[in-house]
Amino acid sequence: MSASHVARPRPVRPRTEAEQRRRPDQRRWWTPWVYLAVPLVLLVAFTHVPAVSMFVYSLTDWDGLSPTRNFVGAGNVQRQRGTADTRRRAADMALVPSPTPEKENE
Predict the structure, then answer these.
(1) Please, what sign has the CA dihedral across residues 59, 65, 66, 67?
(2) Cβ distance 65 to 79 under 8 Å?
(3) Using 50, 70 and 90 to split pLDDT, how confident is the model at 76?
(4) What is the pTM of this model?
(5) Worst-scoring range by mean pLDDT, 3-7, 53-57, 65-69?
């Protein structure tokens, strides 16, 4: 090879004072959190917020349409838990196996 094709090293930019003080492992500690921020916000918005709202609604006598909600506490849960129909349905749900595809007999 001739001397004109030899790669020359690029000049190195001097590090700033802040870069010199920083350790290499402290430079980008926040990078994973930037990528996780959107999924975490969506997770909370579409799962946790509705679950908490549902629990709060269960403690009121709100019918879903009227503008007023009266706090009744755990009265709704105790009233439902005491009925035979609710106990029968809970037992039915516990005994029903999860749906799985059946194998065909050949």
Answers:
(1) positive
(2) no
(3) confident
(4) 0.51
(5) 3-7
Which tokens sit at 50?
A: 């509705």
Cα–Cα distance list, 22 to 15, 18, 19, 34, 48 (Å):
11, 6, 5, 20, 38
List CB contacts of 59: < 8 A, sequence separation 6 or more. 71, 72, 73, 74, 76
Q: Which two tokens stand for residue 56?
A: 């709060």
Task: Determine how many CB atoms are found less than 10 A away from the CB of residue 58.
Answer: 13
Q: How far apart are the first and last CA of the chain?
A: 72
- Distances in Å between the alpha carbon of 62 and those of 48, 66, 71, 99, 100? 21, 7, 9, 34, 38
Position 55 pLDDT exceeds 60: yes
- Spatial separation of the C-alpha atoms in residues 49 and 30, rounded to whole Å: 26
Cα gap 91→73, rounded to integer Å: 25
Q: Which two tokens stand for residue 4?
A: 């004109």
